[in-house]
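Entry 14: structure prediction run for Phospholipase/carboxylesterase/thioesterase domain-containing protein. Input pasted below.
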Amino acid sequence: MKLVLLTKPITLLTLTLSGTLLFTLVFRPNPSIRRPDSMARSFILWLHGLGDSGPANQPIKNLFTSPEFRNTNWSFPSAPSNPVTCNYGAVMPSWFDIHEIPVTADSPKDESSLVKAVQNVHKMIDKEIAAGTNPNNIFVCGFSQGGALTLASVLLYPKTLGGGAVFSGWVPFNSSLINQISPDAKRTPILWSHGMDDRTVLFEAGQAGPPFLEKAGVSWSFSFNKQ
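Run finished. Output tokens:
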């Protein structure tokens, strides 16, 4: 596990997502796992935040032009439209229900809608594996609500994946779900980045992530920026 302070927020996205690949290449809890071939087919699944869309996030991939991403297939799905409790029941793109904004470490969790969203993400991952991508070369990343879904999807997936990157997310389920995390899932490394001045998902919600991952026995690295 590792804590990193980033002082230039403009570089946060590039450093963290690139770091996800670097992290999984150099650090594995079980050294017997084969390191992914950087030239093999890889897959990055990006999950957007509340009210956003997949196409609006597609320019992110243009930041990554280094050789490690030469054979990378990106996917930017859009969340279905659902009523959202924190927005007085307004219908908008939402992976699962959120009961309050700002999100704190103690915010209510809607696990029933979360589980449905996780199942949909798992179908996307299964489809990519069926197409020939090694699970060790599959990375799930997300921002805000998408970051919370990323965490749940990676931890509850039955196989070891290349890594997960949580940007300004939170732990969207209760600690009782720790018992559902398989030994293989615990070997998937998690990178977590959060802004200290985030007014939507408070920094305290992000800070609750590392202790949760530590308790679950998951490999993690946490970075934060002051702006």
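Notes: The longest helix spans residues 111-130. Will compare against the previous run tomorrow.
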